Structure formats: C-alpha cells, structure tokens
Queue: 2 jobs
Job 1
Amino acid sequence: MYKIAVIGDYDSIYGFATLGLSICPVRNREETRRKLKELADGDYGIIYITEAAAAQVQREIEEYRETPLPAIILIPGVSGNTGAGVEGVRKTVEQAVGSDILFGGVS
Amino acid sequence: MAGKHVNPTRMELTRLKKKRVTAIRGHKLLKDKRDELMRQYLDLVRENMELRKRVEAGIRSANRNFVIAKAGMSAAALNTALMAPKQEVSLEAVEKNVMSVDIPVFKYKTRTADENDIYSYGFAFTSSDLDGAVKSLADILPDMIRLAECEKACQLMAAEIEKTRRRVNALEHVIIPETEENIRYITMKLDENERSTQIRLMKVKDMMLEEAHHYDCLVH
C-alpha cells in the first residue's frame, strides 16, 4: 500500500489535505530537498510537487526519473503556472525521439 | 579500418562469422523493439500531454476557488476547518511490463466510499465557496492519478527507447561493419597464405626436379 504526498508552499497545497493526501508544506530549498528524500524513500507512490518547489530540487527529481516508484509529478502552484510541467513532457519526447516533433508548435 | 589487430586464423574467422550472425539477429530484434516502443510511447505521450493540460487547468481553477473561499473566511476558521481530514487515499501500485519496461499502474482507494467525506468540517461556520473549492479539487483527483501513471510510464519508456536506440545504432554502424571488415581481412590473409604456400611448393618441386634430372626450369 502506498500513499500520495503533495509538496509545496502551504497556500498551494492545503486543499489537497481534504482529499486525504499527505501535505508537506515547505518553505526553502533545504527543507524541500530533505522532505523529498524522506518521502521518496518512504512508502509514497506518487509525490506531487509544485513547479516552484520543483525548480529548487531539480537534481533530486532527476534521480528518481528512471526508478519505477515513486512518480514525481509537477503541478502548478497558487502563484501560477510556470510551464515546467509541460516542459518536462517535452523533454521526454526529446529524449525518446531525438527532437520534439509532437509539441514543437504548441506553447 | 580494422581497429585492432586480429589473428588471421581459421578459428578466428569462424568466431567472427558467428559473431556477425548474432549481431545481425540482435540488430533486427532491437530494431523491432525500438519501433514498437516508439509506437506505444507516442500514443502514451499524447495522452500524457492532454491529461497534463486538463489537470493543470483543473488545479488552476481549484486554486482560484480556494483563494475566493479564503477571502470569505478568517484564516483561523479555514485552518480549523481543514485541520483534520476525514478522507484518506491509499494507493496500490502494480507493475506492468510493456516491452521489457516495468511501468507502474496505480489503483487508488479511498478510506470511505462516501464521496461527501471530503468535507472535513461542519457546514455551519464555513463559506459555501469552500465546499465548491474542495469539490473542484476532488473532481480532478482521478485525472491526477492517471497523469502520474502516464507521466511516469513516459519517462521510463523514453529512457528505454534512448537506450535501445543507442544499441541499435552501435550494432548497425560499429559492430557489424567492424566484424565484416575483420572477416574480409582474415579471408584475404588466408587466401594470400594459400597462394604463397602453393608457389613455395611449386618452387620446391622445380628445385627437386632440377637436382634429380638436371632439368632446366626455364623449359616449363
């Protein structure tokens, strides 16, 4: 049995608590990194992380990219959408195909 | 072009010929694997992009609802209302094997079946905006789970495709041409040895004949 966690600034994620997801409010890079490690090594199957928080711990997220679990998924925060999530998808296309042939024209 | 020295022996030749057969078969198999992976990946990544757009739009509007809800209530009242969640989600992850890539498939279960259990507060002291906000977030949860599954699968498959593609290219452009070059080298070397042995034997025969019968080899 796995659990689902949401990492980000409190304002962006407090709503998810009502759904029964574990929320982990973080304020700075160090805290985010520690929390992410802790959750990823624990029994969490999916970790949603706000784009703003993810931008601080890109290297750590990269580490979990090729392991089957956990899935680390970027979501927009309350301050708006930075497009990092879509960028991530585009990056996988580039990795697989060699160049972005699918979403090149879409911004 | 032969990069390193190869022994021009028959044994080596047999070994290289076997290697070439294996390499060609491996190349064909890997190429098929790459094509099939790519086909499935493209379907998946399209779905991934669609889901992502839907989830992002959903979260954006949910966030907007939460901001409105927050504006209508005091922060303390809001925090109290959301302090003790009633609902709990647990996740079951099964691994599915797609072309030798293990991708997770998520099934989620809520602790209670009642979908109204997302409201962890009494309705008396909270604004109705909060109910709407919570509901809008709950509505996109299934899509979010599916997105997680899809996006993880895409990442894993992309890595596998990259690996397979490198292998295919290495076989096609390095291993197979190199082996063929080496085979040609050995064949030519062996032929050359054969010819020189032949000539040596002819020469020896001439010398022996000359010695025995005083033939002049120029007669031939």
Job 2
Amino acid sequence: MKIVGIAGSNVGTKTRTAVDVTLQKARDKYPDAEITLLDLAEYDMVFSDGRNYTDYEGDTKFVTETIMAADAIIIGTPTFQASIPATLKNIFDLLPVNGFRDKVVSILVTAGTARHYLMVEMQLKPILAYMKAHIVPTYVFLEDKDFHRKEIINDDILFRIERLVEDTVQLTNAYANIREEKDAEYDF
Amino acid sequence: MKQYRIEPDKGVEIGLYSIGEHLPNPHTGELISSQQRILELIEASKLADEAGLDVFAVGESHQTHFTTQAHTVILGAIAQATKNIKVASSATVLSTSDPVRVYEDFATLDLISNGRAEIVAGRGSRVGAYSLLGYDVRDYEELFEEKMELLMKLNNEDTVTWEGQFRAPLKNASILPQPMNGVLPIWRAVGGPPASAIKAGHAGVPMMLTTLGGPAINFKHSVDAYREAAKKAGFNPATLPIATTGLLYTAKDSQDALREYYPHINAGMQALKGGGYPKQQFAQAVDHRDALMIGSPQQIIEKMLYQYELYGNQRFLAEIDFGGVPFDKIAKNIELLATEIIPAVKKHTAKK
C-alpha cells in the first residue's frame, strides 16, 4: 500500500508537525506500507495551466505523479481566510477531474480558532468528492493550543490521529477488496 | 457538400485515423520500433484502401509516447502507397505551424494523391508542440483563431494580403502549388464541449468532432450548437459536413472484443492521460447508446446507425490502433469493418 502525506502550505510549522506525527504512527503500525511525505514548502510548484499532469516538468511533475501513484492520501491543511491555502488548491487544479478515483483520502486540519471547525466540510470535502475520492468521514481538527514548540501536547489529538491512520488503512483495504470483487465479475 | 468532395447519397463515409501514439502492446509488453510503427501505419493505409474504406488520417503530437510528429511526411508516403482513399490529418496542430507551410504541404499532397488530400486543423489536446516549437501555451486560443482565419483565406483567395499578430504580413502572396481544383477540404477539429463547435459553425467550416466515450447523446449538444451557430452566421447547415471520430475495436463476438481490447484502452489512457479506464465504465460501453465503438460487428453497426440518427453526420473515423494494438489485430479490424460493418452501415445511410 502506498500512502502519501501532504503538508499543504508553504509557510508555518503546525500542519507539518501534525503530518509528521501522523506518518510516524503509520510507519510504526504498518511497517510494510510505502509512506511518502510531500511538504509543499519544499517544492517549487507551477500553477496549473490545464495540461495533463504528466506533461509538467520538475517538482510539479514529481509531486503530481507521486500523488497519482498513491493508494491513500493523508492531507494536512492549515486554514487561511476560512478556506484551504492556495498551495493546496493548486495541487487539486493540477490533477485530472477524476484524480482521486479509487483512492482513499483522509484529512488533518489546523486552525487558529475553533470557529473554523466546519471549514473542511464546506471547503475541502466538496473538492475531494468532485474528484471522486473515498473520503474518510472523520477528520482531525487541531488548534494552536494543541501544539507546543513543534510537538502535539493534547492526548485527545494523539488518540484521534491514531484512529485516523487506522481508518485510512482499513478503508483503503476495504475499497481494494470491493474493487477486486467487482472486477472479478467481468471476464476482461 | 460537393466542394468538400462528399457525396451524402452514397451513405456515411467511414475511415480510419491515428494519433500516432507509440506504446507497448500491454498483452506482451513489447514495444515496436518507431520505424516499424510508421511503416505499419502506411501498411494499414494500404489495407484500408484495398478494402474500400473512405478516409485514412494521421495526426501529430510533439511529445513522448508519439511517433508521427512529421505527419505530413507520412501522409505523403500514404498518398503514394494508395489509390482511392482520402488522405487527411487528424489533426494538424495549426496553432504551432505556419499556415502557409501547412497549405503548401497539403496542396502538394493533393497533387501527389490526385485530389485526395484534406486538412483537419486543431489546437492540440496535448501541449508538447508549444514549448518544443517556440509558442506560448497562454496564446492557445488566439494562436489558433488567427491561423485558422489565415488558412481559410489561403484556401479561398488567389492572392492573399493579410496581417496578424503571430506571423509576418502577406502582401499579394500567391501560394504554390495550388491543389487539384484550387481548393482543399479544410475541417476544424473539435473536442467534446460545444465552445469550439460554435466557433466552427460561426466560421462556416466543416467540423470533425471527437466522441471518445460516454453517452453518445452528450455530443449532440455540440452538433446542435454547431448547426445553430452556422445558421446564425448566414450559412446553410445542410451544406456543411460533420465528421465524428472515436475509438473502435471489434472482434467476432463482444466478449472477445472486450477481453482483447481492455488492456489496450486501459494502458493507453494511463500512459497518455495518467489515469486508466474503469472496468465498470468499459463494461457499460457495449450498450449501443455509448459512444465507444466496442463490441461485435453487429453491435458496432447498431452504434454507428444510432449515432447517424443522432448527429446526421457525413463521416465517421475510427481509431483502431490505440494503446499498442498489434498489426495483426489492426488488419483484422479493417477486415471486419470492410466485410461486415461498412456494407451494412452504407446500406442504411445511402439514398437508394
């Protein structure tokens, strides 16, 4: 199973910290999984101009191809102006319309205030649904007060992250089985 | 229709086209050489010509997984190797070419082929040509519209005076050689959505519409929009031919067709678009209402007649070599088209 974690902004540390902790839990629990981090702050991405993602060059090609090769994607996003950051939206714009078909996508979201709790429901999930993702229904919401110097200090969050990792892997396996069963109905 | 060398009384024209992609045969993993791929295209054109098909077309894409970048050169070889079949592009990426050179090439092709050449001009659904040939993909729309206007002018006027943004001006220029009867059939290649169908109709240019898959009725919007735009611009839609194009694979029965073709369409889409073809969607595609031409010869006949009823098209071009289909299967598809499918479709669409 290929799992890709995306830290979705090019500034700040909290989202990256949350994704790091999540991927570490995944590595500990599922040593056979192939786990890759894509921190968008580390890549030089161009804006989407509508071409097929395979036709880009450099970092843009690497990042999009890595995402498209994944079975499961864990998206970490901060909240900017009551929405996702432009860096993350650009990733979606770069991918095909059905880019998340047959992929499980789960979400970690950081925000400066609890008032942003429904941002994921209103801003992020509709995009993922449009792109045909199997969305893990529950997500982990982290506030500033859950962090201290690049560490997560709220046990509730840590437990939630554990469950998010388990749910992501379990749903990925379940959908793979469903697909296999469905494909077996066809003799081509 | 006569100026486009089309005789609707003889029934809908059926031909083949290739985008010249160069991919391994997914059944064996074998990738033939570029040379073999090109020679087999020429060989397929001979088979199609001998079998009485109406058109053979080759397109250009300037990037990896393709091998017919110099499509006019290949069309020259095809013109020489064949006797009756029309020779066209599918498509010529006009946006990244000089319309004068395109016209010279196809006028020459028309002379070599004794009046069988046609231009199908498009913008390119793949963008490789833009950076390679020195154009900015941000000018995507304007490049094409300006060059298309010039190309039509070259076709319709004896001496051309013209000025534009992307090419040096022309003053009383004569384009030589001239094609057989002074004009070439020139089509506009149109993708799925109606926006460029409307542009084609507005300019009164014949439309070649790609109908790659999904419900055939979805493409009817573009056909209607094309005719409506033509009418509004003062053209008689009944004088403007419409061609449709799509992937086609047939075998003795539909199960064989599905089994043999699925790996090709899946691997081909994966290589060119970065996403495979879902099995569920592929299984649905044998339905006569789906545009994808997959199934037994009888099912293909039903699909072609259904689409003819929907669109009232004058031509259908089939892409039978997509995704590394080996030459023996290409030959088999041409044979089934010629012996079973085309006679039935012509019988139903010709005026008795």
